[in-house]
Design brief:
The complex is a heterodimer of chains A (about 180) and B (about 400).
Chain A: H1 3-36, H2 40-44, E1 48-51, E2 61-65, E3 68-74, H3 77-82, H4 85-88, E4 92-94, E5 97-103, E6 114-116, E7 121-123, E8 130-131, E9 137-139, E10 151-154, E11 157-160, H5 165-172
Antiparallel strand pairs in A: 1-11, 2-3, 3-5, 4-5, 6-7, 7-8, 8-9, 10-11
Chain B: H1 10-18, H2 20-29, E1 32-34, H3 43-62, H4 72-83, H5 87-115, H6 123-145, H7 150-161, H8 171-178, H9 185-215, H10 229-237, E2 246-248, H11 249-274, H12 304-310, H13 315-327, H14 332-335, H15 349-369, H16 374-399
Antiparallel strand pairs in B: 1-2
Helix pairs in contact in B: 3-5, 3-11, 4-5, 5-6, 5-11, 6-9, 12-13, 12-15, 15-16
Classes of the chains: A alpha+beta (about 180), B mainly alpha (about 400).
Chain lengths: ~180, ~400
């Protein structure tokens, strides 16, 4: 057999081996990526119902949804007087009452801001960001107000994790980002 | 079958099969180290020894630690600390070691910067060393998650949130890294794996590479002098030990290393036995609680400078600044345009650059620990800006440097 054909055969074998190895490598990478994904059981657990009927004014209530804290703050008349056109959009109205409902994680890096009822504002101790009573940002570094979780109004109850028309409107006009 | 003669000693028997004599010559007795060095040249072996101690103490902690969100906290704070015989010793060695190893890493780095030990053939030493710095940082962070206290949980939350990339909102990536919406069981388990297997493997590989990169350019010396190692080695082997500029790594240089290590370990074990609390944040003795952030979150001291680079800016600029600060030191050999390998004190403006950088990083470190309020915020911002200004100035001032 001539050198030329040997070389051709070796090249072919090399390329075939390399090709199959690359294929197997890509498959392995995909399997590794999938192994790091959140489990289906983790993704499926995700609906919380909270009743807003008995929430007192200007007292922060913390609920839990998908392991994250959810802030509920019923607005008093004085607090409503301070809202602007923009920040009012952040509130959920049930009957005459207005509620601030949001994910209690700072939009900067995810610490839980603390509420000061006298100042009617939130302070994130990690990097010094502040929010008003509607959880809109008033001092950087947070880039935006606290995110509002997907919700559906059901009488005086709120189902977190489901998407109702009020939430869709908030998403559409940019009041909140999808969580 | 290769041909083997009958061996007359165990040494000879091993040499026939493993070439141990050759190995010993190449790695020890004929691996040449300049004489003109000081105690700062011992930091490499001090680091290697500290890594060894972290490995051994870690092995014993691993025997009782439970990577489970319900039992991790108690397995550390109850089982290891009060039930396991001498469990407290391993924990305090591991905690103190993890903190002190960064002090030595920073001394080792700034020694290299001061003497210009990253230039003219020594670039790979610097790059592999920076790789080790990054790997040690990842190792420290993943280990910090394991006791599953409040600081573990919230450091995990904040650091993984960095990967959302600010306005990019890559929340999917963050959830992928965590394996959950928030740090939970999947998160603890995978960081446990990283801490005890994958990152230590990478560190061991990088240490071998770091030693390998040192082989051909050899270690630097106090004057940055270019030494003819073949000639110096020849003199030494001829018995002209005094005239030669070099000594063998082992046993001569190593005996100096061992002296420095002796002093170091007295200090190390003094801290382990009497002042371990500096490495044990009191907040982390509260179990992890996803519904309550500690009032003041700060990283361990060795991450404070880069944390302070992130903190004074808005999210996006802060993230970019932080990302640059993490990698900028990798570029040192390429941003330093001067041909001189010499101590900073003889390099004109670079002398001021070196001390300004060192002091600026100390200021950033102190500001990172203080609450982000009032005057501290302002000083932090100025120090962060100075940090970047210094890096911009580096290629300019080094390009103008006179050749020595």
């Amino acid at each position: 057999m001539s050198n030329k054909t040997t070389k051709g055969r070796r090249d072919f074998m090399g390329m075939a081996l390399g090709g199959f190895t690359a294929l197997g490598g890509l498959g392995a990478l995909y399997a590794m990526k999938r192994t790091w994904d959140p489990l289906p059981s983790v993704k499926a657990a995700g609906f919380t119902t909270i009743d807003l009927k008995d929430a007192p004014e200007n007292v922060l209530i913390t609920e839990k949804w998908r392991g994250k804290p959810i802030f509920v703050l019923k607005q008093s008349k004085e607090m409503m007087a301070k809202t602007t056109e923009k920040t009012k959009k952040r509130l959920i109205q049930i009957g005459d009452a207005h509620y601030m409902v949001s994910v209690g994680l700072c939009t900067h890096l995810g610490c839980i801001p603390g509420y000061n009822p006298e100042k009617e504002s939130f302070l994130c101790a990690c990097h010094g960001g502040t929010y008003d009573a509607t959880a809109d940002v008033t001092k950087a570094p947070p880039p935006r107000g606290l995110d509002i979780p997907p919700f559906k109004i059901d009488g005086t109850k709120l189902v977190l994790g489901e998407t109702g028309p009020e939430y869709e409107k908030m998403l559409a006009d940019g009041t909140t980002l999808a969580v | 079958m290769a041909h083997f003669e009958k061996a007359n000693s165990i040494g000879e028997w091993l040499d026939q099969r493993l070439a141990v004599e050759t190995l010993k010559r190449v790695l020890q007795t004929e691996y040449w180290i300049p004489k003109n060095i000081n105690f700062l040249w011992a930091m490499g072996m001090v680091l290697a020894a500290t890594f060894g101690i972290l490995l051994v103490s870690g092995i014993f902690l691993l025997m009782y630690y439970q990577p489970n969100v319900n039992s991790a906290f108690d397995s550390v704070n109850y089982t290891i600390m009060s039930e396991v015989g001498y469990g407290w010793l391993w924990r305090h060695i591991h905690g103190v070691g993890a903190s002190i190893v960064f002090l030595i890493i920073y001394i080792h780095m700034f020694t290299g910067i001061y003497y210009g030990s990253y230039k003219k053939g020594r670039e790979l030493i610097w790059l592999s060393g920076m790789g080790l710095y990054v790997a040690f940082s990842a190792e420290a962070f993943s280990g910090y998650m394991l006791p599953w206290g409040q600081m573990s949980y919230w450091a995990g939350m904040v650091i993984t949130n960095l990967f959302s990339g600010g306005s990019l909102h890559a929340d999917g990536l963050v959830e992928w890294i965590r394996g959950d919406y928030v740090p939970g069981q999947a998160f603890l388990n995978r960081f446990f794996m990283l801490h005890v297997l994958l990152i230590p493997l990478a560190i061991i590989g990088l240490i071998v590479l770091h030693f390998g990169t040192l082989r051909i350019p050899h270690v630097n010396n106090q004057d940055g002098e270019e030494i003819d190692f073949d000639e110096a080695a020849k003199l030494y082997k001829e018995g002209k030990v005094k005239e030669s500029k070099v000594i063998p790594f082992s046993p001569v240089f190593l005996s100096k290393d061992v002296l420095v290590m002796g002093v170091y370990f007295i200090l190390f074990f003094y801290l382990v036995f009497y002042h371990f609390e500096f490495a044990m944040d009191p907040v982390n003795f509260d179990p992890a609680n996803g519904l309550k952030t500690p009032t003041h979150i700060y990283p361990e001291w060795y991450f404070l400078w880069s944390y302070e680079v992130l903190r004074p800016f808005s999210t996006n600029i802060g993230l970019i600044a932080f990302a640059i600060a993490q990698v900028i030191f990798f570029l040192l050999p390429f941003l330093d345009k001067s041909p001189n390998v010499a101590p900073a004190s003889r390099r004109g403006l670079f002398k001021f650059w070196f001390w300004a950088m060192l002091i600026d990083m100390l200021v950033l470190t102190f500001m990172g620990k203080l609450p982000p309020e009032g005057i501290w915020s302002v000083i932090g911002l100025v120090a962060a800006l100075v940090f970047f200004a210094l890096w911009i100035a580096l290629p300019i001032i080094t390009a103008k440097e006179k050749k020595l």
